[in-house]
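Researcher: Quick test of sequence recovery. Tokens follow.
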């Protein structure tokens, strides 16, 4: 964004954009030693519209501190600093962070703390290689351009890398457009299917990295969860005929107790398709209750290993003895 032209009116523009774009993720430091609470506050009020001006001001304060430190060392910017312009850039950059988090299927709570509902567009993966690659290539192209220009004696451009940066941003928008169209198509295809004779009650289409035509569908009927692949290029649901059906489980006292735990409350607030399993602990010490959000249960991935599988261990009296924000090691051993 800076190299595309937003750095033309003020010094420190790119630095401001970089720091402000990362500032909403300051929430990862709020509970450094409590992973349960850290999971609960992530993408909360620091990712909301209400606090965006404050987050932008914090980022700009950091830029000001760096600027003062540089001045004391005898270094100054080649372009005069316009602090009003920089605050506008900081706010824009914070909002761009919120936009990026909204486009993936993890989501955010943009109206916190008044409304804690999660919103997600489900358009791209949390890590989208096409977008990351385009931005990295823009940086590389800009660097090569300066290097080659210096070698052949071409006068340095006033705004180096502008063409590459603008091209990358346009490409990102095109990726969003293509994926959004295919996501809507995948949702429509899922809505018009019957699943063992039952109509869908709730569903989602979740992206695969790189492939905009392949989607991980999760459908809830009255009695079952259905995990199915959608191919929007061929306009087919379950093209390989390998859909997975999981029956809805009746609520057990162990599951109910785990849901009342702090981790259970936080997880169920975030999860869109929560699937809960209960198993006895060794030596009849109690039970372990697993929480899994099926929107991340892509085919081929273990049901018990990796994000977002979490667990709560209970003793025989159904008291919580352990809360884990990751899978138990013994469940992931070969």
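Model:
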């Amino acid at each position: 964004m800076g190299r595309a032209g937003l750095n033309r009116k003020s010094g420190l523009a790119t630095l401001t954009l970089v720091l402000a774009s990362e500032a909403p993720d300051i929430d990862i430091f709020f509970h450094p030693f409590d992973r349960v609470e850290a999971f609960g506050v992530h993408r909360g009020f620091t990712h909301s519209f209400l606090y965006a001006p404050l987050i932008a001001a914090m980022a700009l304060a950091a830029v000001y501190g760096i600027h003062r430190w540089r001045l004391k060392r005898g270094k100054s910017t080649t372009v005069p600093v316009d602090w009003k312009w920089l605050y506008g850039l900081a706010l824009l950059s914070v909002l761009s962070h919120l936009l990026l988090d909204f486009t993936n299927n993890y989501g955010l709570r943009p109206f916190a703390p008044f409304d804690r509902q999660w919103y997600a567009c489900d358009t791209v993966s949390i890590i989208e290689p096409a977008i990351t690659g385009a931005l990295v290539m823009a940086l590389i192209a800009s660097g090569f351009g300066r290097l080659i220009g210096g070698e052949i004696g071409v006068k340095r451009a006033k705004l180096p890398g502008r063409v590459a940066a603008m091209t990358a941003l346009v490409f990102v928008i095109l990726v969003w457009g293509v994926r959004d169209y295919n996501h809507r198509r995948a949702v429509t295809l899922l809505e018009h299917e019957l699943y063992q004779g039952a109509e869908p009650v709730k569903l989602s289409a979740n992206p695969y990295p790189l492939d905009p035509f392949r989607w991980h569908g999760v459908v809830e009927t009255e009695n079952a969860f259905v995990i199915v692949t959608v191919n929007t290029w061929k306009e087919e649901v379950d093209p390989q005929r390998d859909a997975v059906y999981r029956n809805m489980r009746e609520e057990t006292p162990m599951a109910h107790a785990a849901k009342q735990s702090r981790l259970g409350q936080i997880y169920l607030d975030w999860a869109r398709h929560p699937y809960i399993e209960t198993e006895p602990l060794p030596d009849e010490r109690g039970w372990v209750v697993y929480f899994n959000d099926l929107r991340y249960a892509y085919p081929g991935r273990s049901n018990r290993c990796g994000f977002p599988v979490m667990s709560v261990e209970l003793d025989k009296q159904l008291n919580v003895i352990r809360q884990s924000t990751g899978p138990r090691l013994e469940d992931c051993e070969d």
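The chain has three domains: 2-121, 181-247, 253-331.
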